[in-house]
Amino acid sequence: MKKLLLASASAALISAPAVAQDDEQANEDTIIVLGEGLGDTPANPDAYSTVDIDRDLIQTAASGRLEDALANVAGFQQFRRSDSRSSNPSAQGATLRALGGNASSRALVLLDGVPMNDPFFGYIPFSAIAPDRLSSIRVTRGGGSGPFGSGALAGTIELNSAGAPELGLFTGQVLANQREATEMSASIAPEIGNGFAVVSGRWERGDGFFTTPPSQRVPATSRANYDAWSVSGRVVQEVGPLEVQLRGLAYEDNRTLRFDGADNSMSGEDLSLRVVSRGPWEVDAVAYAQWRNFTNVVISSTRFVRVLDQKDTPSEGQGGKIEVRPPVGEGMVLRIGVDYRRSKGNLFEDAYSAFSGNLTEERFAGGVNTNLGLFVENDVELGPVTLTGGLRADRYAIKDGFYRSFDGSGAVVRDDSYANRSDWEVTWRAGAIVEASDVVRLRAAAYTGIRLPTLNELYRPFVVFPVVTNANEDLQPEKLEGYEAGIDFDIDEGTQFAVTVFDNKVKNAIANVTLAPNLRQRRNLDAIDAFGIEFAANLQRGPWGFNASMALTDAEVVGTGFAAPLDGNRPSQVPSFSASATASYTDTNGMRFAATLRHVSDQFESDQETDVLPAATTVDLFAQVPVAGRLSAVARVENLFDEIIVTRNQGGSMDYGVPQTFWLGLRYGF
């Protein structure tokens, strides 16, 4: 069935540009761009702390990777500092506002309205989403769940695909670096009928770099080599009064980390259908299906042999959303909707003796999570004041959970089936905007939200040798309470500043809690409380641009009982300060230069504030120079000054992030 759906999508892709047209239902100045969802409402996103990243800034990421582009927003982080060339995929959750502490995503990542969070782990397949396929990114920090769907605990990251006018009929690039890694991508985007089609592909491979410090390398030490590909297709067509958007994505990513044989992989296939109506009754309906898999081999750090083979972790996700905006009169936008998500997954893994190499245990685990959400939200314009308020009710179920293990002879070691459980959770959000003058806008918001524990957190133990972290089938959903206030300065078309003060608390925060030396378990803490201030700036003077973002956060664990020793500690992997600034030059002929400065303060490896990851400051460069017609030469530099970026520190056993890297290549059509 999966192959049939993918084949059907591929066939459809040969038939369908963001064509701007006058909206007959609105005034003549309103421009509708095909390939997008319904437009912003009077208070959204302006009532919340929001950062928009345009296509030009996305394209200047020195690594050419999505997570690098997102790092332009201070406060964005993954569990570790590694990018998707040298990180285990299961550690690539996305979070905001220093609300991390484990590898799952506390932010909801949407691609054209579809959740990209992995159904089993919650991680984001960053390497599968090529930045050159995107037109823009919107990051909303905080804001609760609202109409986005459950899981938007720390915020929402909305990725919007580029259409034919942005891409042109053909775009492509090929680059290589000094370690002989290569990166190739291409897109074809014809305008067809009343819309467009886009077919894109990307392949990258490299022997990588040594993540292990020189003093800790052994004969079994491996470079972080990688080999990844992704293909995507999208059709957008106007069919009468409706706009139909069909999207498909397939990808695979293979990596080796630290030791020979420590191989991991992720793969996936996604299909989605979106139907948008922009008539008097506006409708945005999305349906999607996802199939994912993950494998991972753990190598002993003392004997350098296989001790665990997580050989198969198939998972699937299905869901959708319907949002309706009825005509309710001038100065008001009402949103009513329902969304649904089902996640199912299983784990199959084998454990081996580090001494004999014999199979010692076979393990099987898995379950099903479902969430049905109902929401209503209303924005009202009252002169210089705009108010927004929304209510959401989620019916969730955690069911069919199990864990079974057998020893090497096939005898039962454990055979656990966990009780099904379900409940309702009601959340809300509200905000206000005051246009104090033509330049100054004041805003304030309060919100709540929830996130279900992932199947990974509930049922899958894992090992970062020699530390074992056990799952916990009794985990409760995380609940957010948040408040923020901000001021925006819109001085002129090319000058904007914003300041936001926030206080966000995640109750029942799921963290990896140390129980004994080399033993941890996922537990619900009383809370993680994060208080901070965010700054953003955007300056544009002719061809010159400057974008900056900074976040100062005081995050701490609130703990009693078993968590009392952690009370007041900073959550693991969470920095107190982060900042990013990019200066750029872009002329009308396609010449482009950019320099990006980033800083992340020190972090702790563990929940007990041990094993420091030192602060790191990096400089990246990007240059694009036209050669002939639409052909340009491209140069990128990652980590110009070869800063040592410690990404893991367990008792002095360390991993490093990307070193100084030079890329050269050609682009056509960008």
Q: Could you explain how this protein is built, in words?
A:
With 670 residues, the protein is mainly beta. It is built from five helices and 40 strands. The protein has a 25-stranded antiparallel beta sheet that branches. The radius of gyration is 24 Å and the shape is globular. It starts with a helix and ends with a strand.
Major β-sheet profile: 25 strands, antiparallel
At CATH level 3, the topology is Maltoporin, Chain A
Tell me, briefly, the overall form: globular
Structural class: mainly beta
Strand content: over 45%
List the defining traits of the structure above.
670 residues; mainly beta; Maltoporin, Chain A; 25-stranded antiparallel β-sheet; disordered N terminus; five-stranded mixed β-sheet; globular
Write the layout of secondary structure elements.
Blueprint: H1 2-12, E1 20-22, E2 31-33, E3 49-54, H2 55-59, H3 66-70, E4 107-111, E5 114-115, E6 134-141, E7 155-161, H4 164-167, E8 170-177, E9 182-188, E10 191-192, E11 195-206, E12 226-239, E13 242-256, E14 263-278, E15 282-299, E16 306-312, E17 315-325, E18 332-352, E19 359-382, E20 385-407, E21 412-417, E22 421-435, E23 440-451, H5 455-459, E24 462-464, E25 467-470, E26 478-492, E27 495-507, E28 510-516, E29 519-524, E30 527-541, E31 544-558, E32 577-586, E33 592-600, E34 603-604, E35 612-613, E36 616-628, E37 631-638, E38 646-650, E39 653-656, E40 661-668
Parallel strand pairs: 4-7, 25-29
Antiparallel strand pairs: 1-2, 3-6, 4-5, 6-7, 8-9, 8-40, 9-11, 10-11, 11-12, 12-13, 13-14, 14-15, 15-16, 15-17, 16-18, 17-18, 18-19, 19-20, 20-21, 20-22, 22-23, 23-26, 24-25, 26-27, 27-30, 28-29, 30-31, 31-32, 32-33, 33-36, 34-35, 36-37, 37-40, 38-39
